[in-house]
TrEMBL record:
InterPro entries: Enolpyruvate_Tfrase_dom, Enolpyruvate_Tfrase_sf, MurA_subfamily, RNA3'P_cycl/enolpyr_Trfase_a/b, UDP_GlcNAc_COvinyl_MurA. This is UDP-N-acetylglucosamine 1-carboxyvinyltransferase. Its EC number is 2.5.1.7. UDP-N-acetyl-alpha-D-glucosamine binds at residues 92, 121-125, 304, 326. Pathway: Cell wall biogenesis; peptidoglycan biosynthesis. The gene is murA. It is found in: Cytoplasm. HAMAP family: MurA. Keywords: Cell cycle, Cell division, Cell shape, Cell wall biogenesis/degradation, Cytoplasm, Peptidoglycan synthesis, Pyruvate, Transferase. It comes from Virgibacillus necropolis. The keyword DNA-binding does not apply. Residues 7-405 form the Enolpyruvate transferase domain.
Length: 428
């Protein structure tokens, strides 16, 4: 087991290239189940969530060949193998095996998904969608059994505009008989990316990117080649790190429109943000001003950047109020930031961040993926050395983050933990 050490004080400068989007990748891979012939996906991020899904595709009989960031998936011998335990628990997106296997085989048995602990993460809207398409869904000892004689298109109104439910219903509905309409659908860019892949496979989908998606079911889907979109959350993380501890950082391979809400907040804080073709330049100029942020569904401020942004606010003059309306309990990074000297109060579900304070290096634990990102940003800003444990969360979503930061001039490295440290970590 490893820990990450970050020595603060080195100003970030230079260029960093953003990888393919995690939250697209984790849906594109299961989507390949629906095809009758090979699906090739290019530009995948080299992160553990992607490899776990590759292993799950192999568990159900897929032939999965990796070539760096490219994968070729041969679905010919896939079967509707139950996946009640094991790797499905390692990540959230294993729930996409539900929609994809239901679409392909009219049945699926999948364990409840893992992923970041952000408070309750129900999947009732996914299930409501599968039931509307004609499936019977039961929960038997922690595994979800989904069975249908046949899938029939339906009108489905999502009570909450859920990314996962929108994609999962789309995965099942592309092969249902007749027309499906998803109302109050989520509009995140990753949903458009998945719909692009499905359309290239022969699916008939209209309205993606709006809150009404219309799908005309088809009887079969074929293979294709697809290139994934860049990861807006990774790009946003580097933008925040650059604002927190940078002089001039160029972020390459970005669709800046995907980050408008975040860039607007950085500009409000006094950070110079220049957008050009596929690149962003981030340069903090003078003291930062505090802002309030409220997370919302896309195109609002993304919940996945709330935690690193909270860290940035510790450096800003005055008080910033952070409210996460998507995951109100996504606050586990705050105790760790307090260990580093941050002045943050939690009141009425919001985090009130007072600044500026000089963060101090400390031993901290990443409780989830973006908490990890927030602690790395904190380490870059802090005096001395910050030791971060819980790297398995960070490795789920950030490709080669240590190397990318080193290229920007940061002093960051990983070390094996001693037995004593592993014990302490496991008991904490
Ligand atoms: C793998 C992946 O893509 N993960 C992302 C996805 O997670 P995920 O797909 O799990 O998030 P959702 O968009 O579904 O969740 C949004 C909100 O809806 C609620 N909800 C969701 C489904 C449901 O059936 N019932 C229900 O009440 C959730 O508790 C949450 O409050 O979108 C989140 C919100 O942008 C991001 O933080 C995650 O990074
Ligand atoms: C919450 C996240 O991931 P997941 O949904 O995969 O747990 C995230 O990417 O910030």
């Amino acid at each position: 087991m490893q820990k990450m050490l970050v020595e603060g004080g080195n100003l970030l400068k230079g260029k960093v290239r953003v990888s393919g989007a995690k939250n697209s990748a984790v849906a594109l891979l299961p989507a390949a189940i629906l095809a009758d012939s090979n699906v090739t996906i290019e530009g995948l991020p080299e992160i553990s969530d992607v490899y776990t899904l590759g292993d799950l595709l192999e568990e159900i009989g897929g032939k999965v060949e990796w070539d760096g960031q490219k994968v070729d998936i041969d679905p010919e011998h896939m079967i509707s193998m139950p996946l009640p335990n094991g790797k499905v628990k390692k990540l959230r997106a294993s729930y996409y095996f539900m929609g994809a296997m239901l679409g392909k085989f009219n049945q699926a048995v999948i364990g409840l998904p893992g992923g970041c602990h952000l408070g309750p993460r129900p999947i009732d809207q996914h299930i409501k969608g599968f039931e509307a398409l004609g499936a019977v869904v039961t929960n038997e000892q922690g595994a979800i059994y989904i069975r249908a004689k046949e899938l029939t298109g339906a009108r489905i109104y999502l009570d909450v505009s859920s990314v996962g439910a929108t994609i999962n219903i789309m995965l099942a509905a592309v092969k249902a008989k007749g027309k499906t309409v998803i109302e109050n659908a989520a509009k995140e860019p990753e949903i458009i990316d998945v719909a692009t892949l499905l359309t290239n496979m022969g699916a008939k989908i209209k309205g993606v990117g709006t809150d009404v998606i219309r799908i005309e079911g088809v009887s079969s889907l074929h293979g294709c080649t697809h290139t994934i979109i860049p990861d807006r959350i990774e790009a946003g993380t580097y933008a925040i790190a650059a604002a927190a501890a940078g002089s001039e950082v160029v972020i390459d391979n970005v669709i800046s429109q995907h980050l408008e809400s975040v860039l607007a907040k950085l500009r409000e804080m006094g950070v110079t943000v220049e957008e050009s073709d596929e690149q962003l330049l981030i340069a903090p100029r003078g003291p930062l001003k505090s802002v309030d942020i409220k997370t919302l569904v896309y195109p609002g401020f993304p919940t996945d950047l709330q935690q690193p942004f909270t860290t940035l606010l510790t450096k800003a003059v005055n008080t910033g109020v952070v409210t996460d309306t998507i995951y109100s309990a996504r606050l586990k990074h705050i105790d760790e930031l307090r260990r580093m000297n941050a002045l943050i109060k939690v009141e009425g579900g919001s985090a009130i961040v007072s600044g500026p304070v000089q963060l101090e290096g400390a031993r901290v634990k990443a409780s989830d993926l973006r908490a990890g990102a927030s602690l790395i940003v904190a380490g870059l800003m802090a005096n001395g050395i910050t030791e971060i444990t819980g790297l398995e969360h960070i490795d789920r979503g950030y490709e080669k983050i240590t190397d990318k930061l080193i290229n920007l001039g940061a002093n960051v490295w990983r070390e094996e933990m001693s037995e004593h440290e592993v014990d302490q970590f496991q008991n904490s």
